[in-house]
Amino acid sequence: MVLLLRRYLLLSSLFLFTSFHLARSGDGEALLALKSSIDPSNSLQWRQGSDFCQWEGIKECMSGRVTKLVVEDFNLSGTLDEKSLNQLDQLRVLSFKANSISGEIPNLSGLANLKSLFLNDNRFSGFFPSSITGLHRVKVIVLSGNNISGKIPLSLLKLRRLYILYLQDNRFTGAIPPLNQTSLKFFNVSNNLLSGEIPSTPALIPFNSSSFSNNLKLCGEQIGNPCINHGLPAPITPVPSASSSKHSRRTKLIKIIAGAIGGFVLLLICLCLLWFTCKSCRRRNSGEARSKEVGIEGGVTREEGQGSGAVPSGRDGNNGRKQGGFSWEGEGLGSLVFLGAGDQQMTYTLEDLLKASAETLGRGTIGSTYKAVMESGFIVTVKRLKDSKYPRMEDFRRQMDVIGRLRHPNLVPLRAYFQAKEERLLVYDYFPNGSLFSLIHGSRASSGGKPLHWTSCLKIAEDLATGLVYLHQTPNMMHGNLKSSNVLLGSEFESCLTDYGLMLFRDPESVEEPSTTSLFYRAPECRELWKPLTQQSDVYSFGVLLLELLTGKTPFQDLVQEYGAEIPRWVRSVREEETESGDDPASGNETSEEKLGALLNIAMACVSLIPESRPGMREVLRMIRDARAEAQVSSNSSDHSPGRWSDTVQSLPREEHLSI
User: In this structure, how many other beta carbons lie within 10 angstroms of the beta carbon of residue 620?
Assistant: First the structure.
């Protein structure tokens, strides 16, 4: 019996060794066959008999199989060999970017594990390869800068994980498919021959004109070309017969006479209305000495029935409510106070601000936030505080002066404030690139986001830690409300803290409870409103935010109480299941594992239940910078998945604006 068992183990080992050797040999031979079809100048130094996992352009191997093939800018030409390419069936990332490969893109149906495909800036022709739409794991398709023609296939809707679709600078014709994938974050079909209406699906609405430009027969709101009768045949006008010509002239004459009489009556009505309007204006002017009223006119959408604290105040006989504006009455009319150095005071006045059109951006614990567009086109963000009577005016001014002096690249600067008896407004720079919450979770206000690549996590963590260290240098200053929605992306997509130092304006006697999400960002020792906030509580919130970056999960539950010492295992399990990256701990990459471990150690130290055990933000920043300094990040743009900061965030379409 023992002898039979030994023979079985020996045969099994021999079979596994043979299979492993054949797999390695198969990938090596496939790579050499591929080289012979696209490398006539011998730019790739691949040699028979050597370990192909060490060859140039082989970025990753797993169990002796090639998983990342990145051969960019090697002056390759010729056509891709379909048979040898499909033998590399364990590929996750495939890139031939910036070469001179021509011909049609071959059938890639054998690459069932492919996630990212970069064939841009070559000389490919033919049609969109339909085989790609059958690869259900694909998230990134970059075919820009080629000569591909024909229609963009409707079957792209089958790719439920599609994250990036770049098809610009080709010769595509026909209509844009109604893409509806909520995962789609980057999209460009500019410089093609597309026609018809841009689909108004939720997935395509967020993209601006740069994603659709230079398609002469395309129409839609995104490109400022309304689709009025586009593509519709001209109506057929019947030729009138001789017998109907006389009747037609009589009908036209009757219409002209009726129109003239109707116009005269309409003119009389307008004159009457004008007389009544002038009379009403004279009555109002006589009462202006008794009551003054100021407001942002006609901009803010009415918010009736959407919760207390965000409804514009003031009265004009409309059930006691002035529609569409910030307004107040009576005594205490204040002025716009500009803060910090610079020429902000020369840019706009209180009158300009009060006349601005406004769009609601969000409502939170402190108040409501609006995008205000002035008549000059200048854009600012205005926060309207809920509690206009707390704290006292002198305390409010004192805190505004402290916050207004803070200037740092990772802080959203407070530019001005306004206060009157019943109104307090804060004016900030406008950040068109959105919030960190949107970067992680898209437009979904749920916990269904995706983890970010560790390089992105380190970059964001360093930005936020740097901003918090600067804040904590000011005596008695802390953020107090740190969460992903209070982190905005700057012009270079740096992470910037906003709403810092405002929790002092929350009335401690208020009975309104914070949202569940906001509550679990807070340290356990200060979740009751009457308990004071501390810099240690900011450290705890930073740790929760770091866990959100690593998992894509908003804290709808108390993560520390729920998982405790099991947080690292939980984070790894989430990333293995849902990460967007092809270079994550699940793939066995040592660098990823090391950096993930460093980030988890920092997060665990920050979320300690004992405030005194948490490190200071200066120590947290040092640990993050040490982790970043040790990181070895490749310069190839396709080495990592779109979760990588330099690939994803830097390529986001930016809105043209006039913010300070």
Answer: 25
The domains of the chain, with CATH numbers, are 21-222 (3.80.10.10), 295-302+321-429 (3.30.200.20), 436-502+514-651 (1.10.510.10)
**CA 124 → CA 297, 336, 638, distances in Å?**
55, 59, 19
Among 568, 575, 557, 581, which residue's Cα sits nearest to residue 641?
Answer: 581
pLDDT for the residue numbered 179: 94
Assigned token pair, 104: 């049609």
Quickly state the pLDDT bin for 49 (edges 50, 70, 90).
Answer: confident
Tokens (6 digits) for 558:
């108390």
Q: Is the pLDDT of residue 70 over 70?
A: yes
Q: Are 212 and 198 contacting, i.e. CB atoms less than 8 angstroms apart?
A: yes
Tokens of 601: 């150690």
Share of the chain above pLDDT 90, in %: 29
| CA-closest candidate to residue 363, choices 285, 307, 423 | 307
Higher per-residue pLDDT: 265 or 16? 265
The token pair that represents 289 in the structure block: 């000495």
Confidence at residue 343, expressed as pLDDT on a 0 to 100 scale: 41
pLDDT score for 472? 93
The rounded distance, in Å, linking the Cα atoms of 605 and 572 is 17
The answer to whether residues 375 and 352 touch, using CB atoms and an 8 Å cutoff, is yes
For residues 493 and 515, give the distance between their C-alpha atoms in angstroms, rounded to a whole number.
Answer: 28
Cα–Cα distance, 353 to 193 (Å, whole number): 43
In whole angstroms, give the CA distance from residue 335 to residue 370.
Answer: 19
- Please count the other Cβ atoms lying within 10 Å of the Cβ belonging to residue 552: 19
Who has greater pLDDT, 81 or 280?
81
What is the C-alpha separation between 350 and 335, in angstroms, rounded? 7
CA-CA-CA-CA torsion for 514, 517, 522, 524, nearest 10 degrees? 90
